[in-house]
Amino acid sequence: MMTTYTVQAGRTLRQEGVPSAEALRQAVWIDLLCPTPEEERLVQQALALEIPTREEMQEIESSSRLYKEAEALFLTANFLYGVEEGEYGSTAITFVLAGSALVTVRYATPKAFAAFAARVCRTPGLIETSDAVMLHLFEQVVDRLADVLERTGADMDRASRQVFHTARGSQKAKVKARDASLKDALITIGQVGEVTSRANETLLGLTRILTFVGAEKDTAVRKENKTLIKTVMRDVRSLVEHAAFLNNKANFLLDAVLGIINIDQSGIIKTFTVASVALMPPTLIASIYGMNFELMPELQWRLGYPLALLMMVVSAVLPILYFKRKGWL
């Protein structure tokens, strides 16, 4: 699907579908979502440039993602999307800064793109020039990532309180509830780690793009928009630091959860060990009186059987009392 944005008489004109070649040349922003071969061909003919294919956009080497052909800059990075739906992932998006037009090629819709498209319809000043469109779009992406990281931090705080509340809870609490709480915490930590790692990937891509554009700003960016590069770069750095903090916190919380689980497992193993040690003397007594020797005087005693049972009970209770006195139980 192709969507073009043009500023006419101080208003934003948005048009979906395949426009004419003249309309394409007048457009400030051409947004290609899952473009068809016909749409790619029309853009290439109107702007005299080659749109990268989806396979080319997936390449990870820097020379394939950031390069210049003639006067056009080709900038590709991975962007986080789908956090609200829970089906989050990363998608490669290419920005082609070609003179008076910005072409974006994408195969998914991050929320920042939808939000920015709504903004430009209300504020035409955001898309007066192609470089302004790109930089303001980067600002929207950074704002969106900040919201994602804030919500991720809040989720991790809730998981942290849940974990330590569970750890401080009574040992007699229901085992199923305790296990469910720790399982939920582990799932939350995993989601936090996944989101922050993908957000870091987006921030890394933006850093590379802004560095590349900064090196070409004398020819690619208008004078009035150059300060935007510094502003966006400063915001990106702050988010990188915050994402690193969240990653460290997630690792600490993961270690804490695994430590609590190990302590619980150690307690279970200790209980079984103590039980097996306590049952060893009764087992010995039972083994002795289970022998089939002909001369065993206790077999003829009237109180022999009750006495053997009493000896087994006493020999089991005494080790347990000793362990409790030593604090092993």
UniProtKB/TrEMBL annotation:
Entry's localization field? Cell inner membrane; Membrane
Name the keywords, alphabetized: Cell inner membrane, Cell membrane, Ion transport, Magnesium, Membrane, Transmembrane, Transmembrane helix, Transport
Q: Which GO terms describe its molecular function?
A: cobalt ion transmembrane transporter activity; magnesium ion transmembrane transporter activity; nickel cation transmembrane transporter activity
Taxonomically, the superkingdom here is Bacteria
Protein role: Mediates influx of magnesium ions.
Write out the catalysed reaction: Mg(2+)(in) = Mg(2+)(out)
**What name is this protein filed under?**
Magnesium transport protein CorA
